[in-house]
What we know:
The chain is mainly beta.
Amino acid sequence: MTLRFDRLARAAALAAAMGLSAAAACAQVSVEQPWARATVASQKSSGVFMNLKATGDARLVGVSTPVAGVAEVHEMRMDGDVMRMRAIEALPLPAGQTVALKPGGYHVMLMDLKQPLKAGDRLPLTLRIVDAQGKQQDVALEVPIRAMGSAAAAPAHGADGAAAGGHGTPHKH
């Protein structure tokens, strides 16, 4: 226990010497249960879903992947009786709270796919996070691709995400 405390004290002292708070120096974002929806041969878009949790206030400000011409953070919401989707500039990640990216809500939208996303493959994806002090962090992921319509693809949102307005269902951008 003393050794661990000594290491933490040294890390805090180093952060203070660099003009940073210990919290800012240690701010991290964890990613849980990431997955992408598989596509059919002619499909040019898909969604990526996950849970994000930041140790300090942060924002998801961008995404990138080599398999899509466009990768954006999107939100879906009801406008009267029409589900609408739009890109957002930043998704707040409040300290200590899990933010769900899921079908029918916030998600990563991949458009202009360069190849089909095949179930069982993995998708390289980078999340760009900015903390409350403006420090930027890139989080590189290898996201599993799951079959469309599989229960595993949307464990908490129905068998295929369609009831929640997932991709592959009609909606307005």
